[in-house]
Please model this.
Amino acid sequence: MTIVKIVLEVIVVIASILLTLLILMHKGKGGGLSDMFGGGLTQNAGTSGVAEKNLNRWTVIIALIWVAIIIALGLMTKFNIG
Model:
């Protein structure tokens, strides 16, 4: 394996963990699994609109990075690069 492929694999693992954490931080919309596991208890705490928008932005950015790296690793495997 080349250094590039190893670095990309490490980045995809870190991005996967970070993406999971970011998704879990989102406010539940109510009535779903988030309420079953205690999401309904935090409704009174509330979040600011700016914080929620920034959380959404970071989630989308990390998801796009994750997808791009997965595609790059797939192409490297397909064409035997690295």
